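batch job 7 of whatever, protein = DL-methionine transporter subunit
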Amino acid sequence: MTTRHTLTAPVTRLPTAAAREVAHITFDGLGKIYEGASSAALQDISFAVQRGESFGIIGPIG
């Protein structure tokens, strides 16, 4: 007896070129207050990072 099995992978749709071009993340009004701090380390920060970009905030902590 011969048994045949066919395995198929699910179809994964990739984003269109137009969708990849506009991929980004946006922060609006971001803030950070450390526990026990008397003032905010960050206050009302807004920025957008586009696809392929890196972003960092550098400074003292706590």
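notes: The mean pLDDT is 80.
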